[in-house]
Design brief:
Rossmann fold, UDP-N-acetylmuramoyl-L-alanine:D-glutamate ligase, alpha/beta, ligase, Protein-Tyrosine Phosphatase, Chain A, 20 strands, nucleotide-binding, six-stranded mixed sheet, single chain, UDP-N-acetylmuramoylalanine-D-glutamate ligase activity, 22% strand, 3 domains
Amino acid sequence: MAKRIAILGAGESGVGTAILAKQKDYEVFVSDFGKITETYKDVLENFEIEWEENQHTASKILNADVVMKSPGIPDKAPIIKQLKDNKVAIVSEIEFASEFTNATIIGITGSNGKTTVTRWTHHILKEGGLNASVGGNIGDSFAKQVALSPSENYVLELSSFQLDDIKNFRPHIAIITNITPDHLDRYDYDFSKYVASKFRITMNQTNDDYLIYDADNEAINDYLEAHTIQPKLVPFSTTKSLKYGAYIEHNELIINIDENKIHMPIDSLALKGTHNQKNAMASSSAAKMLKIRKQTIRESLANFQGVEHRLEHVLKINNVNYINDSKATNVNATFYALESMSSDTIWIVGGVDKGNDYSQLNALVNEKVKAIICLGVDNQKILKAFNNCVDIMVETQSMSEAIKIAYKIGERGDAVLLSPACASFDLFKNYEDRGRQFKEAVRLL
């Protein structure tokens, strides 16, 4: 008899899982508590997959052999509680898809830098002639690719939510870019639970596998001291020389993983800033593990294009630089953005606060920010945090208004930086929508 899978959430990961499950002869049912977009409905119809929207019919879900839960659905949701009470197995899309591929998997997690490292690693592998696809939290879902366009290597960006529901998922190379407080609302405001969630990426690794990690990150180092993990450790650092791993010395990035050391001047990296030196080290260490040639790695570190909505230069108008960093949805990401600013900055900040502590930004705001434009429904916390740091603070409710004010305040040589430090769901669909509205508003000036 065919196994039955119920899929909760008809977004990219849900629909991808449905396609793969159908291909593997599962009886498939897709249920979304909200509305399903027309595009995904068409796909489900096309593959003759049964679906429902605006509800979860318990009787059609609780009888499943396995349930795939989309990462956005919290454990507190009533249907999840029912499934757990009934002891129905719940897996993530990543877990389900990994059972149907023998490809080499590079899994990348962390509070910041995941997308850049994922894209950069993929770029180096492609330049090195490997058959490689990118997926997970970005692009086409991993499951859909396993079903419709299989690859020999997958570079997967993985959120902590995706890792929370894995059982046997095992990447050959795991990368933890860094761990700083984020999404604490999903982890009972307990940072140690969030850290443990990130480290789930290593839980099935063996000593044939690798963990590439930021050796300057306190939370990662504390965890590694307190726990024994199986994979071979490959550290990277911008503050200390390492006998093994990647580090900076005399303004050179050095990768010392095998007898074939790589040296590269940091000035020739495609992306600037300390955090991008780390992103480059993580990506190139992974490429080195997969035997990509030194010359290819060097060239790929120098010619990478970067990621949309991550410190993306939009336009220069009247000698004022407009920079889109909409992807900065937490304080740590904004810290990196402000740190990389070399001119007086008009900072656009705000949105849905995830339990942010803004105090770590005070020194940077004092040094670099001349005006703050709040862009959110509730800006009280931001106003309170920085009212002693800057003279100009303005509240706005729309992107076009924020940009018009920035344009008025901006003087020759300034930068206007959208780096919200918050989620976007109060005024925008998502961070991409927020970033695109920023770019559009700047172009209309």
